[in-house]
Write a structure and sequence with these properties.
single chain; 22% strand; 22 strands; first zn-finger domain of poly(adp-ribose) polymerase-1; 509 residues; binds zinc ion
């Protein structure tokens, strides 16, 4: 490729074929659809090395940069410039400066131009200081692009140092929040004050307006957001997600506290592409309508690892190449609940499970089912889908009974690495049966069933033998006082033992 053939600036162009992928949301860009062609420097390998090694001595592989060819040579002075593509709406939110310059230069007729310009304004209203300055913008965006792709705590510290060095106040926030992770006592209190002061001083930059939510910060950025369904407001949330503090958002939890708010419908789309954990609904007694969860996820969450659907969520179209853990939770597995809206057909969890397809969830390895009533039926539905044979972990919580146990035991060829029945109330015989299904790791509640009938009191469980009178046999301690112990021996009968040093504890047979 000759120098002048390379893309030099950010341009808007129609996608030549339907084969390009949006670098922001990870979804394909249809043929003929207008896209932003973003010119970028492909020398990621050297770029990252020069930054990461500033603090972390560990070796890393940066092959991908070299693969694109031409600059593995250390003498190369001008790194290659390449193009990557974005939907215009995605670029407006995540690459507002680049899209704005492309819009200014384009001669094409942009149909939703006004809307895009508004979106750019929104995104720019919360730009970081280092992003506003032309001389630091590219480096800032280089850091962010790498951090968005994969969490990297060390790189976040390097980023923080760099922000500090260019006078961006977020740099100090990174430092303070990093120190808070290990601080104790008075130092911790001081750091908390410093954090509070920073957030207040730079409120407009750090915190989106009108947002009512619980935020968990991590090294200068919001890591997790917990919001009540009644506080969902797509426009406010859209603004929040466009703010720089949310650019590395990894976890979003929406608690269903209102039966009238449709969770999925009131979330802005696309959701932040950095999300790895999405929790919808309420853990216990889940019956809330959560809306079309399948469509919400399929609509561009390229890093999603964990999805919890606690309530009635429509799973139709659920598709994710990365989803490893799926949690489904509902009050009653066979009762039809509406996922919400007047048109939505009420369906039981069993029917929703039946619609899941392994080929649409290739990375799924852990399934969690929390069902208060009719868990057996949910297990039967899972067995039907053939999902079971691809899982390595199954977590069951609820009213699992003999029927469910038998279903699993019959599938003994499809052994699980982990079967967690901690929150099921199973008897010893059923647990034995399940061990053939996942012998290595069954997690069970410590002796609720066994001791409930045998000996509820601590005293009664304490078994002893009298060293001098072994013929009395094993004794149960029935009372303890200043006078010693009262022991009921199997052969010797009830005795009061003053010299307790003659008693030795024995294990229950
Ligand atoms: Zn996109």
């Amino acid at each position: 490729m000759r120098e002048r053939d390379k893309p030099r600036a950010h341009v808007i162009e129609p996608a030549k074929s339907g084969t390009s992928t949006c670098q922001t949301c990870g979804l394909p860009i249809g043929a003929g659809v207008l896209r932003l062609s973003e010119a970028f420097v492909s020398d990621e390998g050297r770029w990252a090395r020069s930054h990461s090694y500033a603090r972390t001595p560990r070796t890393r592989s940066y092959d991908s940069g070299e693969d694109r060819g031409g600059h593995s040579n250390h003498d190369s002075v001008s790194p290659d410039v390449w193009a990557r593509y974005h939907h215009l709406s995605c670029a407006a939110a995540q690459q507002p400066f680049k899209l704005r310059s492309a819009l200014a230069a384009t001669t094409l007729d942009i149909p939703d131009r006004a809307e895009l310009e508004r979106a750019i304004e929104v995104a720019l209203s919360g730009a970081d200081a280092a992003e506003e300055k032309a001389e630091t913008r590219d480096e800032y965006q280089g850091f962010l692009a790498r951090l968005r792709e994969a969490p990297d705590d060390d790189l976040m510290l390097v980023f923080g140092d760099w922000l500090h060095s260019v006078g961006d106040p977020r740099g100090e926030l990174v430092t303070v929040q990093r120190a808070l992770e290990t601080a104790e006592g008075e130092a911790k209190a001081k750091l908390h004050d410093a954090e509070k002061r920073l957030l207040a001083t730079h409120r407009k930059r750090f915190l989106p307006e009108r947002l009512v939510a619980t935020l968990v910060w991590r090294r200068g950025f919001v890591h997790r957001m917990v919001i009540a369904a009644s506080d969902l407001e797509p426009q406010t949330l859209g603004l929040a997600f466009a703010s720089p503090s949310f650019r590395l958002l990894r976890e979003l939890a929406v608690h269903a506290n209102s039966s009238t708010i449709l969770v999925a419908a009131n979330l802005p789309r696309p959701l932040p592409a950095t999300l790895r954990v999405l929790e919808l609904g309420t853990a216990r007694h889940g019956t809330h309508g959560l809306g079309q969860v399948g469509a919400l996820v399929a609509n561009g969450l390229p890093q999603l690892e964990h999805l919890a659907v606690r309530g009635a969520g429509d799973l139709e179209g659920l598709r994710s190449a990365t989803l490893a853990t799926l949690e489904l939770s509902v009050a009653n597995a066979t009762e039809p609940y509406s996922s919400g809206g007047r048109t939505a057909e009420a369906r039981p969890l069993t029917a929703r499970i039946a619609g899941l397809e392994k080929k649409k969830l290739p990375a799924l390895r852990r399934l969690v089912l929390r069902v208060e009533t009719n868990l057996d039926h949910a297990v039967a539905a899972v067995v039907e889908t053939k999902l079971l044979q691809h899982l390595s972990e199954l977590v069951l919580a609820g009213d699992l009974s003999r029927a469910g146990v038998d279903l699993l035991a019959r599938k003994r060829k499809q052994r699980l690495a982990l079967l967690d029945v901690t929150d099921c109330n199973l008897g010893a015989a059923d647990l034995d049966k399940l061990r053939t299904h996942a012998a290595d790791t069954i997690v069970e509640k410590p002796s609720t069933t066994a001791t409930a009938t045998a000996a509820p009191k601590k005293i009664g469980e304490y078994l002893v033998r009298h060293k001098k009178r072994p013929e009395w046999g094993i004794g149960k301690v029935v009372a303890e006082s200043d006078d010693g112990m009262e022991v009921d021996f199997a052969e010797g009968g009830r005795k009061q033992i003053r010299n307790v040093e003659f008693l030795e504890e024995v294990e229950a047979p």
